[in-house]
Design goal:
Length: 381
Amino acid sequence: MIKRLAIIFILAGFGILLINGGTRAMSIFGSEFQSKYKVLFQDVEKLNAYTRTHKVELTGESVKEIKINKAEFHGATFKKVKWEDVTFDNSIFNNVVFEDCEFLNSSFNAAKFVNCVFKNCKIHYTKMNRAVFKNGQFNDCDIEKSGMVKWMGDEVTFNGCKILDTPLAQGNIKFAFHNTNLDGVRVMMTEGNHSLLIEGGLLSEVDFSKSHFSTVTLRRVRQGEGPTRFDSVTAESFRFEDVDMTRGVSLARVKTTLVSIDGGTFRGATEGSIIDKIYARKANLFMYDMSEATMPYVNIDNCEILNLAIWECNVKELLITNSTANGIDATDFKADIVLWDNVILDGKIDLTNAQVNDFRPTRLKRGPRLQLITTGSNMRF
């Protein structure tokens, strides 16, 4: 009996040794790249032969002044690595994680990123132009003065990032921004009719002009210094949901079937645009320039209108209900049907030369500062 117990303990101890030995072996295997990367980075053929068959992990290193073309990394993990003055143009990164890394004055032009994640990385003065992204993610990253133009692929998502003075222009890829601050960012001339989603975050001097989107959705977005521009953009719809945008949203010369404003505060302009339908509800509106626009159907309900400029507009139907209008400039305005119901008119309401075929005012109320001008207009109260 004693011998059997001894054998059992010996076997158990041998099993533990095997497990520990295996763990040690895995640890050595996992850190093997760390001891060889400086040599491997001198020869791309040897590097790729290694990365195709070995696990790649690099932690806490400073990689400087390396120039490699067409490198390959598959399932690699880089943690707390500083990449400075390095070049990895035309390289492939497949299922790679960059965590707590820093990129400075580096180049990843025409690189391909497949299922790659950048976590809490600092990307400054780094070029990623003409890159291809398949399911790319940037989480809690600080991106500044980098080149990210002409991106291709399917989708890139930014979560909790800060992007400063960086172009994301001329690409054919779907962008989604969640709780991300964009400052001086240009997403101009994008192609492909992909959807654009911006949810949360702060926009300052952001330009989406001359782009082609399927749909544009801004949800709970705030605005910092400078306007947000969608000039000459084509899209099926623009939706602004509970936004706080008082610095101005330029929708000049856009072509779309719908602009929807639901809640929040919106200061916008639609000068020279073609918009089939405009809907606004439960919002504070500063529509400061809707001049020379083609807007067949405009429906404003339960809103605080702080300034509505519709001079020289042609509208089929303008419906304003359950709202307060603190200033309307409708000089030379033309419409088929205008229905105002349960509206408080206040401030300067200038209807000079306004011509409406069918005007239906019901339950109108006068505000204390009302200055109503109807010279040359056929609108009768």
